[in-house]
Design brief:
The structure is a homodimer. By secondary structure, chain A is an alpha/beta fold. The first copy, chain A, is built from 11 helices and 13 strands. In chain A, helix 6 crosses helix 7.
Chain lengths: 299, 299
């Protein structure tokens, strides 16, 4: 089944302690789309500027992503520049130029409205709400967020969560949103906001699938070579949602498998800058790493 | 089979953001012994001062720990005082008074010399070496360490590791010891020092069992109420070693199960100050939590 994703498509300039990438393809919706496209058809809604190169559009097309919802607006594409330190944790933002993204108001094409799966990538909760007003009863709605919205638009975010089935956020965000330092308590509190399930991302430490009647913990897939963690969270969500949308029926064990697929897709993305690594793999590489992961985590 | 443990038995005063415990039973060997005693006979070598209360000795006896190697020396017992912040990560040491521990030179009673399992808790690598000189070909030697020895006695530590089968250390220590920021690379480098297996402890994020031909990753058992993480690492090692020593034959899957037992024993210890929680449980509580853990981590 098709997944509608609404988010950013951007230029990223990334500095790591070992290397640098300039104006590469980035943005939450790019990472999500390419990752999900390995499993299910993806419909993208985003905006770029006139400076957005055709080569980058070709990448999305190559992955058979429906880009009829990608608007090319007058002006420049969203640009982000950041620097990672040795621990590859939260990058320090050097610059964030919203450019055409500052006027972004998501318009859902009529051919997208019947999408059964919806992923609201990290954009303002007001815009996330606007997306939901334009779609026809999707089977499953998922959303992501970031610290910025928790700090500045918490009320709108909490209102949105009433309409969301699966909420993706990282550990720090979960604690910030609930002002609760214990992760289990934070998770339980977020469930009360409305989502049926939450996915707590813990970076190199793994992820947790959290619902009122079930929990599932997994470690991350450790790598001996991490190049750039940018986009790992969106790639994770793409693998998770793509896997779900590829299934006729959803069950608890399908959701658990989805968490593993998210983990594995994220493990690929960090091995190179931008989407490079994901664009170099085949479905068999994913299955192989899933198998390896299960071996690494089974008694 | 019996496990010989050499380490500290101490008084701890612990401050957390929510509470405080004064001069409670602590020390690496106390935590290790009580934890391991659920699975195998334990023989303890340590030193305390004349101020060490009989009640604390009774606790060790109650757990059927052989204390014929516990010396009561003239002077005061090792005392540590520390404070945890909200994140319950590394505590800030307020005071560390070695007292009688500063003259500690481990003497292994003749009745201990045939111990098949040896655990060298976190003491100077010189003292750890002295222990090994006094035992008769144990089946398995494990050791722990801390940042202090890596910073100040790295050469002696690396020399000791040649004689060690299983080396326990936390993630930060692994990176520090190898001056390598990537955990997989750090693990591989430590294996070259000599240990056949290493156990990398990641606190609330889980643990890794690492050998040249096999790896096993598990998350931690998350709790909604953490009171005091003091002793979690030693309790982990106690569960791991105790479980191993209870088995006739060691196999890869026994080592993996041991990692789970270590995780579960550590999950109990953090639920209260000192050894209180561990002293309140029965073996059935352990089995139950092991079962719960396997459910939480299985698809």
């Amino acid at each position: 089944m098709s997944i509608l994703v609404v988010g950013s498509v951007a230029f990223d300039t990334v500095h790591t302690p070992f290397s640098k990438a300039e104006r590469v393809l980035g943005g939450s919706a790019s990472y999500f789309s390419v990752s999900a496209s390995f499993f299910s058809p993806v419909r993208l809604v985003a905006v770029v500027g006139e400076d957005f190169p055709n080569d980058y559009i070709e990448i999305l097309k190559m992955r058979k992503i429906d880009i009829s919802g990608l608007t090319i607006a007058k002006g420049k594409t969203f640009f982000w520049e950041g620097r990672y330190e040795l621990d590859f944790n939260n990058p320090k933002s050097i610059s964030t130029c919203l450019n055409v993204f500052s006027n972004f108001s998501p318009f859902i094409p009529s051919t997208y409205k019947n999408s059964k799966y919806v992923f609201l990538a990290n954009i303002s909760p007001y815009l996330q709400e606007k997306v939901l007003e334009q779609v026809n009863k999707p089977r499953l709605i998922a959303s992501d967020t970031m610290n910025y919205w928790i700090d500045n638009e918490k009320e709108a975010l909490v209102r949105l969560l009433k309409k969301v089935d699966i909420f993706f956020l990282n550990e720090m965000e979960a604690k910030k949103l609930t002002e609760e330092n214990n992760l289990v308590k934070a998770g339980n509190r977020i469930l009360k906001f409305g989502p049926k399930k939450i996915v707590i991302k813990r970076g190199e430490y793994g992820a947790i699938l959290f619902s009122s009647d079930s929990k599932f913990y997994i470690p991350a897939f450790l790598l001996d070579n991490v190049v750039d963690p940018t986009g790992a969270g969106d790639t994770f969500a793409g693998g998770f949602m793509g896997y779900l949308a590829s299934k006729k029926r959803l069950s608890e064990s399908i959701f658990k498998e989805a968490l593993i697929y998210g983990t594995i897709m994220a493990s690929f993305i960090v091995e190179d800058f931008s989407l490079n690594r994901l664009l170099s793999i085949k479905k068999a590489d994913i299955s192989e790493r899933i198998k390896e992961f299960k071996k690494l985590t089974s008694v």
